[in-house]
Amino acid sequence: MSVSEIQQAKKTVEFSRESLEAVLRGRFFYAPAFESYGGVSGLYDYGPPGCAFQANVVDLWRKHFVLEEGMLEVDCTMLTPYEVLKTSGHVDKFSDWMCKDTKTGEIFRADHIVEEVLEARLKGDREARGLGAKPVEEESADKKKRKKKVKEIKVVKLEDDVVKEYETTLAKIDGFSGPELGELMVKYNIGNPVTGDKLEPPIAFNLMFETAIGPSGQLKGYLRPETAQGQFLNFNKLLEFNNGKTPFASASIGKSFRNEISPRAGLLRVREFLMAEIEHFVDPLDKSHPKFDEVKDIKLRFLPRDVQEAGATEPVVKTIGEAVASNMVDNETLGYFIGRIYMFLMKIGVDHDRLRFRQHMANEMAHYAADCWDAELHTSYGWIECVGCADRSAFDLTVHSNKTKEKMVVRQKLETPIEVTKYEIDLVKKLFGPKFRKDAPKVESYLLNMTQDQLAVKAKELADTGKITFSVPEVEGELELDDKFVTIEERTRVEHVREFVPNVIEPSFGIGRIIYAVFEHSFWSRPEDAARGVLSFPPLVAPSKVLLVPLSNNKELQPIVSKVSTTLRKAEIPFKVDDSGVSIGKRYARNDELGTPFGVTIDFDSVQDGSVTLRERDSTKQVRGSIEEIIEAIRQIAYKGVTWDEGTKNLKPFVSQEAK
Amino acid sequence: MSVSEIQQAKKTVEFSRESLEAVLRGRFFYAPAFESYGGVSGLYDYGPPGCAFQANVVDLWRKHFVLEEGMLEVDCTMLTPYEVLKTSGHVDKFSDWMCKDTKTGEIFRADHIVEEVLEARLKGDREARGLGAKPVEEESADKKKRKKKVKEIKVVKLEDDVVKEYETTLAKIDGFSGPELGELMVKYNIGNPVTGDKLEPPIAFNLMFETAIGPSGQLKGYLRPETAQGQFLNFNKLLEFNNGKTPFASASIGKSFRNEISPRAGLLRVREFLMAEIEHFVDPLDKSHPKFDEVKDIKLRFLPRDVQEAGATEPVVKTIGEAVASNMVDNETLGYFIGRIYMFLMKIGVDHDRLRFRQHMANEMAHYAADCWDAELHTSYGWIECVGCADRSAFDLTVHSNKTKEKMVVRQKLETPIEVTKYEIDLVKKLFGPKFRKDAPKVESYLLNMTQDQLAVKAKELADTGKITFSVPEVEGELELDDKFVTIEERTRVEHVREFVPNVIEPSFGIGRIIYAVFEHSFWSRPEDAARGVLSFPPLVAPSKVLLVPLSNNKELQPIVSKVSTTLRKAEIPFKVDDSGVSIGKRYARNDELGTPFGVTIDFDSVQDGSVTLRERDSTKQVRGSIEEIIEAIRQIAYKGVTWDEGTKNLKPFVSQEAK
């Protein structure tokens, strides 16, 4: 079938998540981890086809991003000490709000429970008013991911102003703090939806897994919640590796961890997941991109902030060039990566019509971020954030540098030197030891790290009064120094080098979520055999490329099977032999579920003349040729981007009754 | 230089670990993680060349093992619940013995401290006797990995019988339990080697990182200490995926974690490391291997158990075929994997002369293991275990199956049905509930899971006395049942299916250790430039394949640089441009340290006639040809196993003064 015929078939046989999951579980794309031990929610294992698919996606990611842009890939540890994540803000802010039911011991995510209960009441109200359900499209993505806690909808009509209030609350649900959620629960009398019992007020639950490093148990650590911090901490080494020049990008592929309160949506919300992250370091004064022209004509669906603020969901379709020119997307580099993300997603089989780029709302975005766009993929759970693409400004390097006192800057030689006037402070250090004893280093460090604004104030104080007073963290009392100890002056110097903290553009990929979306986008059933599914993966990322099918278990066919196997192995084309003895049709159907793009059939004619049959998964078209011809066609189509028609143009069409 | 010339150079310029580490750190192959935060011992990050080298090794591993054998690769979670690791034995046994100095708070590994102190005393004794140091070869590998705790050697002569006793103790050091180590410390008066203070008796320190899964904190989990358990737990799904047939193998590549007490030896003993493990499931009655012939003529250095027991270190050199035929290696499948491991290590650049296969001694091997061989690589730290290859019998599947009550067996249709006589037990279950109430399921389960031996005893008891007495774990008191409740009989049935628990052959690779050994094996210096190192990686695994060097920063050369870059990118050959402006010689020297096998120089002739120069890293030979010819030569040599001479035979030799 052609692409449009598959689209037609998708309309004929409606998508069913249950059917897809039956295939994915039945063919061991994935399975709940530790199933025989009762399982652990939010943990999944990838079986052979899932693992191979993931490996192919990662391999392609590496070629598409790392190799193409000459990125500096690093592999940093997952174990991360407390101090690092304290500095990055994760210890304080990487949390969700949870409420406990003290009677049953159940734990609920506060925002989810408020959302669900209010929605259930609104639904009951609509039924009481004789109105239908709200259209599915309008439901929030995240909500649909979860199995409902509210088991029963009570048909109760609400006051009109209550309906309005609930709706307003739901529209802002992502923006409430924990205490605010607690107030809403009291105000709207929201408790355990099954028993009705009151819940304890929301408390913050940090989503990082904690552990102790070393035998003493003293060094607290976490499993990283993202791969980014390791890249930031290695910035100086990476800059040196790159001969001191920016822009450059680092990249990292690896597992990260989030101890979700109540993970439910299958592969979409898990506690251990594969990420691929890029940190592109760029001059804050020049975010142009030399290869921007290569992406500027790509047309995308954008959902910018203002459209969302107006309550609309209709995307704006324009080219990346237009998006950047109109300042909708902040800068060229951000636009370039949006384009590259789009191209990558297309290569691995995302449905073009089910991708949009959504801009973060003001309250979603970190205070330091300049702009942020999520690539969202549409699935049966709604629109899912799969790739984030943020301009994080200089935040990360600045906080780590402030904490460690290690400078993280780029030094750029100025073509024309410039005069810079600024305050400078000089300490007569030999006097500090006698005066401050063990506190001397802290006092010195405090003074040497004052900002220009602070220095301006202190310079005036020193000039006016002959001394400065100040206090230093961890040092007791107010301190005082006169001008024998310290000089603060405004001086003008000629600078030949410009020093700057680069900004970071961060495309961040949730590989597991992308993979699940591709599963959904690739799944369909033939109208004549609706009970069986087909996973139409692009050959490049398909878990296995070829199913080798001897027509029967007759020993005569064995040498040909061996010969084709050896040739495929030598060509490094992954394949699988199915000599299970069931009918060819059944074997092909099984194979369609595995998403294997090509079947090679060996029959008794093969023994005579060395020819074999090649079958294409989607169209079920078949051609016949020599082993070498067939394998070359597979190689061209699977790896070189050649079309089926082009790749098989010199091969004879083949029709058989059995091998449909 | 040819291989033998490199060997010659290695003799001229002696290996220096300091020089190697300076290169590895300087070129950012790796760095201590969180260095700007003071670092965490045992945690390292791989920078761009280390990360690329690792990715290439993993890619080759996948092709060499997974693709070649059609293995079923899985990707299982690192987070693992307590119960699973309790069953596998890790909770109880995966630990080292540690001693605390209560005064200083220092923690020592008990076996290490005993070993170090006794060795220091023996060394002092040898000095007192005027004897030289022991030859380095004889020192144990593990000992040399550690920075010494004993800072000072006291020259004190010991009694002859004390020397003998110390030597005997050291020879058995790996075999002592914690309490035995404690006794030795008392007996030999071993305390903190610096202060002399007494240490607390050894306590077991479990090496797994612990964490809590989920918001309640109730579900205790660990970071996996190996990837194997996930593969065992998925056995039934893998067997089904393989159409119910054995033998087959699963494989997994991923990080594992060990909370080492005191990690010191750089990349060799780390807390987070990459493993690649294979679990080959095989019929216990038939461990032959169909491809054994492909490896049987490979000659290897074996260090079998009996040689070690005799105190010798001279390996036995024989073919794998001879090793299996003489029962030195237990079976063909184990032998086959030993051969494949050897081939893999050769491909990635291990020095043939610095590899041996050492058999586990009786006290090293798990009680259930049938045989175990370690591939050890020789480094400046001594002989290091890098790959384990064990026949683990049916242990793992059996313990998990016993715990979960999920059968993990292979069902094999028998060609000729057989008669089997065995005891069977029948319960009249409707009587169990009234008699045992809530304990009924436990009692039933106990009775139904009795072994044939137990049943034989109980059958006799029932026949003799009309009743059986027994006790059930977690059920109070002795229980009694008469023949109204239970029947136990010997019955003969015709069986058409044979059921068996497969045995597991487990090749397990420590990728980080292998990589470090390859670093050492590949490192040498040119006698004429001994201060600079060369890393002679095989092109296939080299981090980057090509350094692109424009002769100057003249703009005229730019179009050629772009053209070569585009062509290399299209051919998916990783490369790096060095337009840093330092001399070509310096750029090549830098590149030698990165182990890049090829240099492509662009000069002003390139602008005229489109030709470029190709330089080979080891020999510094140069040839000249068109861009297409040069890149094709690179492709053939780097990826297709073609030699330099063969790959460049149609290209003109090139000599220049500058580009040496």
From TrEMBL, chains A, B:
InterPro entries tied to this protein? aa-tRNA-synth_II (IPR006195), aa-tRNA-synth_II/BPL/LPL (IPR045864), Anticodon-bd (IPR004154), Anticodon-bd_dom_sf (IPR036621), Gly-tRNA_synthase/POLG2 (IPR027031), GlyRS-like_core (IPR033731), tRNA-synt_gly (IPR002315)
Chief location of this protein within or outside the cell = cytoplasm
Reaction it catalyzes? 2 ATP + H(+) = P(1),P(4)-bis(5'-adenosyl) tetraphosphate + diphosphate
What are the subcellular locations of this protein?
Answer: Cytoplasm
Gene Ontology biological-process entries: mitochondrial glycyl-tRNA aminoacylation
- Is Chloroplast one of the keywords UniProt gives this record? no
Function in brief = Catalyzes the ATP-dependent ligation of glycine to the 3'-end of its cognate tRNA, via the formation of an aminoacyl-adenylate intermediate (Gly-AMP). Also produces diadenosine tetraphosphate (Ap4A), a universal pleiotropic signaling molecule needed for cell regulation pathways, by direct condensation of 2 ATPs. Thereby, may play a special role in Ap4A homeostasis.
Q: Spell out the subunit comment.
A: Homodimer.
**NCBIfam families noted in UniProt:** glyS_dimeric, PRK04173.1
Question: Under which name does UniProt file this protein?
Answer: glycine--tRNA ligase
Q: Which organism is it from?
A: Huiozyma naganishii (strain ATCC MYA-139 / BCRC 22969 / CBS 8797 / KCTC 17520 / NBRC 10181 / NCYC 3082 / Yp74L-3) (Yeast)
